Amino acid sequence: MYWSKLFIPTLREVPAEAEVASHQLMLRAGYVRQLAAGIYSYLFLAQRSLMKIQRIIREEMEAIGAQEMYLPALNPAEVWQESGRWDVMGDNMFRLKDRFGRDLCLGMTHEEVMTSVARGELNSYRQLPQLWYQIQTKFRDEPRPRSGLLRTRQFTMKDSYSFDLDAAGLDLSYEKHYQAYNKIFRRCGLKFMAVEAHSGAMGGSQSHEFMVISDAGEDYVAVCEATGYAANLEKAVTLPVPPVHGDPSGDLVPEEFHTPGRKTIAEVADFTGLPPTAQMKSLILVADEKPILVLLRGDHTLSETKLEGFLAAKELRPAHPEEMRQWLGADAGSLGPIGVANMRILADNALRGRHNMICGANKDDYHLKNVTIGEDFQAEFADLRQAVSGDRTHDGKGVIEVRKAMEIGHIFKLGYKYSESMGLRVSGDDGKEVTPIMGSYGIGVERILAAAIETYHDKNGIVLPPAIAPFDVVITPVNSELPEQREAAERIYRECREWGLDALLDDRKERAGVKFKDADLVGIPYRITVGKKISDGVVEVFDRSTGANTDHSAHEAFEDVLRRVKSTNLAAAEGKA
RNA sequence: CGGGGCGUAGCGCAGUCUGGUAGCGCACCUGCUUUGGGAGCAGGGGGCCGCAGGUUCGAAUCCUGCCGCCCCGACCA
């Protein structure tokens, strides 16, 4: 294609609305324009890149035997009411009415619609397993869209669904997706990791998220390079750093002391001169309308996900100040477990074996010392705290680091939630009805592009891997006015095209600097520069990622680029990128 | 939804405090010169100053209400 005829509106300055690198660069490079909060138009270059990403996804989905479909984005309320999610989704769902007043919504995900297709047509165990997928627009009324394409209200998702006869079948479908996702993200050139995740309200037994480490991300992962451990922070199980200060020894009796105005862990630590690790932090929560007292080491934070999981609670919230006073007789800041009989008491595993600690006295402005779990009161132990950097892995062999990350894919074993609630059943080999077991697997298509740009950019702009760059190569005559350069560039351009390279000819009547800057900004991996040396039949091949220039004879330049594109793509696919 | 910031040309901004004919840089158009990393000179076009109401002889500027966008938090299959 000829740059002079394309719409690539590059900007010299960064629009004020953009904060993260991928957002700034996609605006500057003319990839996207914003229509409203969390709603973007993908212009020519972005669309071209997204199409390449989708092609990779399709190839890998097909490789595991998944069949592509295309379901409606406009959904009747009924299917969502059947699964119960019409209510669960709340304000996150875009809802509308048709002219007869019937309720409709815009699809946020497609378990319901896929299941409704399946229940009408799948009749026999002989038809299983089935792997169905689509690449389609999703709508979610996010409370706060942010960071450009990282969290939007309308986005493209590859979502697939598996239907299997039994759990062993689901394991296989899940494993196929796990492998396919690894291939997809590798081919896209991303540095990513699969982490254990919690399945949340999707239900189900197992779940992995595919994460790209990036400060622009909204998720946290606990990783250990030495052992290869990786988990979502909400779910990470680690060993705490032991307290530096040993506990007071002996079989001591709890003793009240006055702590006027000292409410926080830090204030009490300061007051007593003992580190936060010497304290037990008391939190009051309400799980499904029942009060719970949770104890953590002073320096630790509760993982609500773990608590919710441990209690199998549907709803969890912090207690209101009035409730704390009513149940324990004191305000937050002076609460503790001793003498508490009207609620369940849970203690985090990090408190196991500790003794003579400090906690609230359930009396305003008083704390207790010499408190020991098991002696002075009883509690159930569980893993309830959030991991922190510096913890050791659960096998004790490595050190955990907590990093920010962005989620680009998520796979779930759904179980029977949708097949059961929506009445999907097939005949088994014994003639009896069987409910198929399902899995659900998503990839955020735009997030792949955003993650790649977050990972690969420099001060000059975007540096995309060739597999997902809008073009493989740009041919740039330094001075388009000179027939010798113009004609040579044209010739090289045609050769590139003939050999299957996705080539762009920068035939604009601009100075060389402008063309170089633009090519760098939009992230084309290779540039063939046709300049003065063309009179000796020599051109240069510029590698965007290394900045290196190499001379080649004009008729061999395309071969060099072709070789580089192929080897880079191959290395990425093999995970050697 | 709570806290903060911002809305003036396509982009970046000044002007608002102290009311008096709307400016600068980049981009865009024309011409000449220039041509290996965002050229120079000359000329030119482009604005419901977010919207509505109010105060005033007069409002980008003061007052009231609303809308939009961004950031932090809450929230997030």
Topology record:
Blueprint: H1 21-28, E1 32-36, E2 39-42, H2 44-63, E3 67-68, E4 74-76, H3 77-83, H4 85-88, E5 95-97, E6 103-106, H5 111-121, E7 130-139, E8 154-164, H6 167-187, E9 193-196, E10 207-213, E11 219-223, E12 230-232, E13 238-239, E14 255-258, H7 265-272, E15 280-287, E16 290-297, H8 304-311, E17 316-318, H9 321-328, E18 344-348, E19 357-360, E20 366-371, E21 380-382, E22 392-393, E23 401-415, H10 417-421, E24 426-427, E25 433-434, E26 437-444, H11 445-455, E27 457-458, E28 461-462, E29 473-477, H12 483-498, E30 503-505, H13 512-522, E31 526-530, E32 538-543, E33 549-553, H14 557-573
Parallel strand pairs: 3-7, 16-18, 18-21, 29-30, 29-31
Antiparallel strand pairs: 1-2, 4-6, 5-6, 7-8, 8-26, 9-10, 10-23, 11-12, 11-23, 13-22, 14-20, 15-16, 15-17, 19-20, 23-26, 24-25, 27-28, 31-32, 32-33
Helix pairs in contact: 1-11, 2-6, 2-11, 6-14, 12-14
The chain binds one RNA strand of 77 nucleotides through residues 9-19, 27-28, 34, 36-37, 85, 88-92, 108-109, 111, 140, 142-144, 146, 151, 199-203, 218, 410, 412, 440, 442, 460, 478-479, 481-482, 510-518, 520-521, 529, 531-532.
